[in-house]
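Objective 1.3, modelling of assemblies. Example input:
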Amino acid sequence: MNRTRAPWGLLSALSAALLLSCVVSLGIGSTSIAWRALWDAAMGHGDPLLRLVLVEIRLPRLLLALLVGGSLGLAGAAMQGLLRNPLVEPGLLGVSSGAGLGAVIAFYLGLSATFAYAVPLGGIAGAALAVVLVCSLAGRDGSIQNLILAGVTVSAICGAFTSLVLNFSPNPYAGMEIVFWLLGSLSDRTFQHVLLAAPLIAAGCALLLGCGDALRAFSLGEETAGSLGFRTGRVRARIIAGAALAVGAAVSVTGCIGFVGLMIPHLLRPLVKGDPARLLPVSALGGALLLLWADILVRVLPTGQELKVGVVTALAGAPIFLFLLVRTRKSLF
Amino acid sequence: MLEAQHLSIALGGRRIVEPLDLTLGPGELTGLIGANGSGKSTLLRALAGLLPAEQGGVFLDGKPLGKLAPRALARTLAFLPQAPECHWPLTADRVVALGRLPFRGGSSELDAEHVTRALEAVDALHLRERAVNELSGGERARIFLARALAGDPKLLLVDEPGAGLDPFHQLQLMETLQAFARRGMGILVVMHDLGLAARFCSGLLALHQGRLVASGEPEAVLSDALLAKAHGITAFRGRCQDAPVLVPWSRVGGRS
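Predicted structure (tokens):
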């Protein structure tokens, strides 16, 4: 038995599926691109217009789907491992609602019209402030219960202020813009959005991926993890910082995309036999795959108005949880 | 050698353990006894370096615990809490392998060897592929003990490992601890079963309202006066196969 063995089979299968899905994602949209033309455009030949669509529209969208989906899945797995609760989602500590509020304030102040990156920068500032507030409310050696309570409090405060801003939105159009942004979307994003989010997401993911052994120890409770040689306060701070960076940056560029961070670790956990360390990379790939397909679905479904990807993940998440509930009840009775 | 020198412990501003001195040496199986709320678990956690001392300190081979790197301490001293649990449905061998985390980065073959040996020691090798949350209470207790033994520690601190176990598994557990103590491991075990404490332990420490009121050989510690004062009971005494037998018999009004 090798305790550090990675689930190579599962990782390979998910990576292969992800690679295939990337090709599908690049080929699908309002302008259909044939496989041959796709290949030519990728090689720098062919129709310049198609190349433009591919490089300027589809590629940033694809990269954001991978980054945001991956970070939500990974942060969800890490937070569930830290709090030892399968129903925790990465936004529990107020990061998502803080990022949402920051972005909404940027909209409200009209900064989005004058400066293209006001919304994502506002989101990042909001996420950072929310985490600082949660950590100070929970106290220096705050217990897990204090952290959750502080997270719920900060989420509620941010939610209330978001509603307030919506209530006083200068005009109905601005209000609609805010609501649509909050629903979560990958459309109309550029390489600048990718460049803005990618370093923060990469730093957050690096922090989280290095916590596998600590999360294994946390399976036995925080005190036992301490007796196994882990500085539990540092591990907690590292996971909170990692999740805040990854999720804060993700929400800042795409809006709130729910259920990915909750659903993916939950669904994939049985495939890694409950091991919280092996779940980390698997959840990152699973989250990226789910968001990529949700975004493909948004583009192929013939809806009159643009369907937001956050709505699709929420619509997919609810029945999956219903299925899990029914399965659990069947196994109990 | 684990030593507590003038150690007192406070939680939330309230003193739980009054200043005391104790030592735990290699090859000793020492029982820590006392009524509920006497401070046994708090003392055990402080001895494991998981709670700070209010006064005095805990020393491992002469060095204060606070000065040791957590990982170095974890390689020498293992701690098994009261009612241990695993929050995810890991297989038994993976739970036992968690005991090798202080040695992470080392040889995985060696880790596997230690895991197998620990499972064998608690007679649970056949359970290795089973999810730990699907095991019975007795099986789970053995797996968690194997987790603590997998690091091959010099010192083992265990908090009520026999709680909730049937007599068969309680005897099996004490025999396992005794066997490891005979091989040189120093073991401090919190226990409520005075009969098992009298029979299996090489020494006892008795706590009463946070004070260390007696220490030494089991038969000397478990005097009628101590049982009445600290536990509020009298006991039936006897001998069987040259081992002391002690059965709690009746309550007395002298417990304070």
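The two ends of chain B are 34 Å apart (CA to CA).
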